[in-house]
Amino acid sequence: MPLTRSTGRSTLVQNSNQSSRRNPSRQSAAPASRAGNALSPSTPRGRGRRVFGSPPESDSDTSHSDASEFRSTSDQAPGSPSRRRRSTRIAAGHGSRAGNRVKRTSLLAKVSQNLSSASRRDKPKSKSRPDSSATNSPSKRRQTATQSKDEDDAPPVGGPDWSDPRIPYQFWVDVFLYARDNGADTPSAHWFIQVATSCKALSEPALTAIYRCPTIRHASKARRLAALLERCPTETRFNYRRKIEFLHIDIHVVPQGIISQLVRPLTRLRELIFYTPLDQPPYRELDSHIRWNYLEDIFLALASPSDDSLAEQLAPTSLKSWEWSGRLLGGYVANINDIVQVHQVPSFAQITRMSFTNFQVPSLRGLQQRPENNGDDLQITLEDNAAIDAMADAIAQLRHLKHLVFESSTVMTDRLLPLLPKDLHHLELINCWEIKSEDLAAFLLTHGNSLRALTLLHNQSLNLAFLTILEEACPNLRELRMNMSYFRHHDSLNDADPMYDFALLPHQVPTWPASIHLIDIEHIRNWSVDTAKMFIQSLVDNGRNLPNLRHLVIKTMLDIPWQARATLRSEIRPMVERVFLRKVEPPQDNMVIQHKDDTREYTRPRKRKRLSSSTSPLRRSGRIEAHTHDSPRRSRRDNKLRRGQAGRGMYRVPDTDEDESDMSEESDSAASDVQQSPTADEPAIQGLCNTVNIVFDNQKVRELQYSMEDFLADDDESSGEEWDGDEDEFDDNTIAF
């Protein structure tokens, strides 16, 4: 595909809410905490975080020193590798989970308040002379002593005793990491600082949640962080060097001269990413030139870290995740062959996740300077093949690689796919135009046995035809994510249409592996109604063979009349929910259960007395009675009528024996129908999915997909009263058409 320059930078301004977000492909596979993991709001460019100084060492001044140390960062939002989300997920139509932040903040605030009150109770009280009038009587003194003892033994109000020393430090760290990484609205750094300065027990866990992946938004904050890391850990209250494990640096924000100062002291660094917003959606600035390259000082800092607190020589920093950008090649790392040499150093020996962004073949990069008809097609092909082979060689140097990401790269072709390692657990292909379904199917048949996750986002030439061999090629696959929305290559031209004729044909029936946990396919288009029904029916028919499925999301666009689409939605959605959705009944309140038990105890003798009354008919038939009580086909309405008619005749006296025989035959036929109900047409009920979302609409796919939540006010209050009619009822000038 031709790669041309954008006509201007206006796209980044128009899509500021989109391009400012970090990409999920740039996040490490290793979770930041054990407490939880989940989707985040957009943040300003670079997703930076303000950095703070260090407090004094005195324990008595902990609250004031921590507050002064981190006062300048009260308006920053904590960053996290697991919270970075691709901006195009806006098009997925996910609603915001309002109220999560309020509940989580109020809960942790209550915990902090209990800890503060507990610390105040532990302080020695000043000695004062008791009131003699209040304790002059021996009985009153005994009563006062008993009350004080009961107050001391009473549990704290509002929950368990959070000041209990048996609660470990790691527990609080997991709590704050979960509060930071989960929910639609994450708490700001100012909230974490308030928690850290409110109680000594929560000080270090709250700061750990901030420093695990610090966000640097300004150059001044980057310098302050570098100065803090250069200080000896014995001079600060906490060892900030060992708290930073993920570092994401925006090359437009952090000065290049202090990067080595930031990297060298971080002995526990696991992920290091240098990125530019130009490599992010909407991907229309891929050919822009930047005067920034990978310096040799960065790799020297990784090879020889320093820690003043340790006397012995430290081993090289062992990274787990790294990202290369083809835009930043030059100087020390000039081309892909130099990447091969870098991958052989000890700092990259334990890499488990590698990402390649904006790596184009030489023929595409020199397309504008090359004459149109030069007759050098063979030479161009040889250069492209050499670049692809060098990329495969660079990947082969990573012996422990499990997670591979290619984003906006034309080097990812049908020639590179067979050269990839066969023990990959997670493969991500994002905005790679050259990948087709036939190429991916051939790769999965030879390399898909060990795949656990497959992420395919915005690949313009990739349809769903490879799903026909998914069960055979990927028997251990757990997650399948696809987003079939695409980006325009030019600002003034709408060239974001799919490069395939059909997403799937009616005879191409998908197959699903039994190990699948998550299926998320969004923005399917260019298929017929029969194909859509066949696709959904393939999931329903294999419900009994998908015991591990917990998340099912299918969103498609059908260009049919709205009546037909509504009918299709009413037929398919209840069927899928009945087969896959988990039925969860909330537990009953203890008071409600106790009230029911008490009511049952009081009403049981009365019911027994009413049933023993002589209001039953004189003639009874055992078969009719069995039919009345045991027929499984009776409706809820009949049950309510029978319960409401307690005390009246429950047995109908048949007029003749023929009627009785007819009723017995009906009961026998009903019982036989019930026995034969689980036929082959009835789908098996899986009933284990926590999320089932089947969407059929005709909404056109756009880069920025707006929903109802985008037009709601920030506050919960209503924007105004609803209009209920014409206020000028008595206006004579009103004209009615």
From TrEMBL:
<feature type="region of interest" description="Disordered">
    <location>
        <begin position="714"/>
        <end position="737"/>
    </location>
</feature>
<feature type="region of interest" description="Disordered">
    <location>
        <begin position="1"/>
        <end position="163"/>
    </location>
</feature>
<feature type="compositionally biased region" description="Basic and acidic residues">
    <location>
        <begin position="622"/>
        <end position="633"/>
    </location>
</feature>
<feature type="compositionally biased region" description="Polar residues">
    <location>
        <begin position="1"/>
        <end position="13"/>
    </location>
</feature>
<feature type="compositionally biased region" description="Polar residues">
    <location>
        <begin position="70"/>
        <end position="79"/>
    </location>
</feature>
<feature type="region of interest" description="Disordered">
    <location>
        <begin position="590"/>
        <end position="681"/>
    </location>
</feature>
<feature type="compositionally biased region" description="Low complexity">
    <location>
        <begin position="14"/>
        <end position="35"/>
    </location>
</feature>
<dbReference type="InterPro" id="IPR032675">
    <property type="entry name" value="LRR_dom_sf"/>
</dbReference>
<protein>
    <submittedName>
        <fullName>Uncharacterized protein</fullName>
    </submittedName>
</protein>
<feature type="compositionally biased region" description="Basic residues">
    <location>
        <begin position="634"/>
        <end position="645"/>
    </location>
</feature>
<feature type="compositionally biased region" description="Basic and acidic residues">
    <location>
        <begin position="594"/>
        <end position="604"/>
    </location>
</feature>
<feature type="compositionally biased region" description="Acidic residues">
    <location>
        <begin position="656"/>
        <end position="668"/>
    </location>
</feature>
